Amino acid sequence: MRRTKAEAKETRQQILLAAEKVFYEKGVAHASMEDVARAAGVTRGAIYWHFANRADLVLELYNSLPMPQEDLIARELEAENADVFAVLERVGREWLELLATDEHRQRILSILLRCDTSGEFSAISERQNDLDDEHMQALEAAFAKAEKQGKLCACWTPRSAASMLRWVIKGLCSEWLLFGRRFDIASEGRDALRRLFATYSSHAPSAR
Amino acid sequence: MRRTKAEAKETRQQILLAAEKVFYEKGVAHASMEDVARAAGVTRGAIYWHFANRADLVLELYNSLPMPQEDLIARELEAENADVFAVLERVGREWLELLATDEHRQRILSILLRCDTSGEFSAISERQNDLDDEHMQALEAAFAKAEKQGKLCACWTPRSAASMLRWVIKGLCSEWLLFGRRFDIASEGRDALRRLFATYSSHAPSAR
DNA sequence: CAACATACAAACAACGCTGTATGTTAGTTT
DNA sequence: AAACTAACATACAGCGTTGTTTGTATGTTG
Lengths: 208, 208
Prior knowledge:
By secondary structure, chain A is mainly alpha-helical. Chain A contains 10 helices and no strands.
């Protein structure tokens, strides 16, 4: 039954696809490796050959998602007179559009959102947390730049603006993913971002 | 070993307390009933006497949380010239303050946020979803009222305003709970709500 | 003060699942 | 072509957990 390298890669890919499907439908906790194997048309032996255990399988599922190029965005923001708000709004919109069109991403993120992060999968959630921290710092720096450029409404601080943006996007995504995707996340997200960034730059009377 | 009714109630309470502690520390999926029993100072027999199974135990944990009186809020909003924004902002603030001071609520909501909702606990998450739906409708109606009163900035629709409010609060809470409560949710939430409601009422130029 | 129900503890049976060890076949290398 | 190894399938041992059942002592009720 020895396969060629290319065939093995394909087997691995099949397992990942099956895991995505099974974990999404039954939940990571209640799906057995046998379930995944059956869905992939292999035995558990194949899975344990390609992956150390279930946590590793989930991790590789997560790793299979191409991540947006953040250094590229950072470079865009570096320019002296960069229009920070325009860049951030576009990046947010693009992220939502990516999510809206990539069904794999939808399922995998759903799996991660629903899975119990306290036990064996703590490594994954920690990594997400680290990423979140980096994003937060980058966002705050970007808004600080906008503030220096005099473009940030006085009622916002870089930190509060960054927090709000994060909360909205996170709330939007988790709501959409966990709740049956009952609305058009691309268009609703676009509107929300537009309104949010409008308030960042508006010279409205400061709150209260 | 037969206990009096009052003692039995107390045993039940002890079990709930222990479940809260153990599930919070180890996660619902990876904590055994034995773990909970040990922490409560009883055997699994006692747990299965008071609760049908683990899902029921979690459900009762959820039910043990006193829910804010929503009909009371609704009545406040009914008044012809009610200041919708003031009421909503206050309600949101009070909810965050309640969460900030009630450690049981923090732990139980954390448990629910982290637990896998796809399997045995689907009943709980469905109930939460139903509640969310009701909230959403109530919020939208409230913002519609504000719109009729001419208080809602033209760049917002009742629906978009309600959605945004929900996303912010949800993002805020889940971020705080899942991420080690690393900031002052009461004060940051208060600020965020203030800014958000300021943008609802501001007569800023419409977005773009 | 029986008789019954309640509130558990303790023992049990059974299963599902995991990880690993071993077997087997077919590529790959020399 | 022999030797080796990659890519699995199969078989196995074993554990942890669950739900249930049985036992039992003590309140509770008529």
